[in-house]
């Protein structure tokens, strides 16, 4: 979460409800179950298509226009179209229901790249939209049985529930700015935004349509959580690999992990505020050291041996626990503590290390040292506080 209690009290009631969802740990079981169910969306080509990587930004907001547009038109026809529009209204309801599946899957592909607080809201957003889809499916069924009045009432109920779901979707994209976008939108445009216009002005309708939001602490949290998701996928790839390809899969994982941990050790942990946050950071550093030692032992083992599998299972559990602890205890405080310059620094470092991951060679310890040196050398010196 990136909204302090004091800030939250100043919010309008709907936004306070959305922030309360971000902080509701009771949603974590549903989040964990859905994370397991949607894992293939992280690394598959389908996931990239659904995230809109071919478009330059997220696909999901575009697809939501399909069911919501058709359902809105349905109620307009119900209210003012008269008996002659009943067939058209029924077809619109049905087509809207058919459009739900691709829209929802594109949303899950986005959702997987966000941090836990955002994922809690995403679960509530999805539950509301699923309820709306059921109401519209009921509306379609009623219309098929010539019970048009019942169908119209169910459609209006669906509109109300879809409106609440849409509000949470707006919270995620507008307030939390979690929609994925091409990295090219992170740089020059952000600097221009930092300089600001010469005079305050209304938004220019002729401006570039793909204006990127100014990166914030929540973008850093999202980027780190996205790398955690990638690490989870790489861990699974090692576990699923046969003996012959296990070594190369492990190399991919360790090259990626080295860059990620280097950024955290050099830039992220030192930027955390004092008190509990620093204590949490110390625990994470201790865990990172322990994971490094466990990986040292793993690298001595034959990838096809049973002891390799046992040691790897321990490491997988340790890394998963470590990433969850960072997301739960460290990242919310980090987002609040970051200055604009810190945000740019960390986002650039994460991106650079991700790009360098595939080219790293040697043991994990060697790759980690090289990655830390890269982070220190290629970036301006991090702030001391
Ligand atoms: Fe870490
Ligand atoms: Fe991490």
Which structural traits does this protein have?
mainly alpha, 0% strand, 385 residues, binds fe (ii) ion, 16 helices
As residue ranges, the low-confidence spans are: 186-212
- Taken from the alpha-carbon principal axes, the silhouette is elongated
- Report the C-alpha radius of gyration, rounded: 24 Å
What class do helices, strands and sheet pairing give? mainly alpha
- Round the mean pLDDT to the nearest integer and report it: 84
The count of β-strands is: 0
Helix content: over 70%
Q: Indicate how many domains the architecture comprises.
A: 2
Q: In percent, how much strand structure appears in the residues?
A: under 5%
Number of helical regions: 16
Identify every distinct bound molecule in the structure, by name, code or SMILES.
fe (ii) ion
Distance between the termini: 21 Å
Order of helices and strands: HHHHHHHHHHHHHHHH
What does this entry look like structurally?
- This protein has about 375 residues and is mainly α.
- The chain folds into 2 domains: about 180 residues, no CATH class; about 160 residues, no CATH class.
- It is about 75% helix and about 0% strand.
- The chain contains 16 helices and no strands.
- Helix 2 crosses helix 8, helix 3 crosses helix 8 and helix 11 packs antiparallel against helix 14.
- It starts with a helix and ends in a 7-residue tail after the last helix.
- About 5% of the residues have low confidence.
- The structure holds fe (ii) ion (2 copies).
- One fe (ii) ion binds next to helix 12, helix 13 and helix 14.
């Amino acid at each position: 979460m990136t909204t302090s209690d004091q800030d939250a009290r100043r919010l309008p009631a709907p936004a306070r409800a959305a922030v309360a969802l971000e902080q509701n740990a009771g949603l974590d079981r549903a989040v964990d179950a859905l994370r397991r169910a949607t894992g293939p969306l992280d690394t598959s080509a389908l996931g990239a298509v659904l995230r809109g990587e071919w478009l330059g930004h997220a696909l999901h907001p575009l697809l939501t226009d399909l069911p919501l547009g058709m359902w809105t038109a349905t109620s307009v026809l119900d209210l003012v179209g008269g008996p002659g529009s009943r067939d058209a209204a029924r077809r619109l309801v049905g087509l809207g229901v058919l459009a739900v599946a691709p829209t929802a899957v594109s949303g899950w592909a986005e959702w997987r790249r966000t941090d836990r607080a955002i994922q809690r809201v995403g679960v509530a957003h999805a539950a509301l939209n699923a309820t709306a889809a059921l109401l519209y499916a009921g509306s379609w069924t009623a219309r098929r049985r010539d019970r048009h009045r019942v169908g119209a009432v169910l459609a209006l109920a669906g509109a109300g529930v879809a409106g609440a779901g849409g509000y949470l979707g707006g919270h995620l994209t507008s307030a939390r700015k979690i929609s994925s976008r091409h990295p090219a939108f992170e740089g020059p445009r952000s600097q221009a935004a930092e300089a600001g216009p010469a005079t305050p002005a209304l938004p220019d309708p002729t401006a570039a349509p793909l204006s990127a939001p100014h990166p914030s602490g929540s973008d850093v949290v999202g980027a780190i959580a996205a790398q955690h998701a990638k690490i989870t996928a790489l861990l699974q790839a090692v576990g699923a690999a046969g003996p012959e390809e296990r070594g190369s899969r492990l190399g991919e994982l360790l090259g990626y992990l080295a860059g990620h941990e280097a950024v955290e050790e050099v830039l992220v942990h030192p930027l955390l505020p004092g008190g509990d946050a620093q204590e949490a950071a110390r625990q994470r550093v201790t865990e990172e050291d322990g994971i490094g030692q466990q990986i040292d032992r793993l690298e001595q083992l034959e990838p096809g041996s049973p002891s390799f599998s046992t040691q790897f299972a321990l490491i997988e559990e340790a890394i998963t626990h470590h990433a969850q602890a960072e997301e739960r205890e460290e990242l919310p405080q980090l987002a609040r503590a970051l200055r604009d310059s810190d945000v740019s620094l960390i986002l650039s470092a994460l991106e650079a290390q991700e790009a360098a991951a595939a080219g790293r060679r040697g043991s994990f310890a060697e790759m980690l040292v090289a990655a830390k040196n890269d982070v220190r050398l290629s970036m301006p010196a991090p702030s001391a506080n």
